[in-house]
Design goal:
This is YjiS-like domain-containing protein. It contains 3 helices and no strands. By secondary structure, the chain is mostly helical. 1% of the residues are buried.
Length: 78
């Protein structure tokens, strides 16, 4: 039985290409998860502005109208 070196190299090249794609996909999934996490935290923070009293809003330099406008921006910030 002989080993075909060309075939083995082809398998290694394919394996390497697949491994790179898997790593790229994992990196993409991690960035997506981080973006969703940041967006979710931002959304919660914006909604919490609505729970502050007028005095608390004044302390952080916002009016009720500005707080409501910020809260409406929601998840994505747009």
């Amino acid at each position: 039985m002989s080993v075909n070196v060309d075939h083995g190299e082809t398998i290694l090249a394919l394996s390497s290409r697949v491994a790179r794609r898997v790593l790229a996909l994992k990196a993409f999934a991690l960035r997506w998860q981080q973006a969703l996490s940041r967006g979710s935290a931002l959304y919660r923070s914006r909604r919490q502005l609505l729970e502050l009293s007028d005095a608390q809003l004044r302390d952080i330099g916002l009016t009720r109208r500005e707080a409501a406008a910020e809260a409406r921006r929601g998840f994505g910030g747009g």
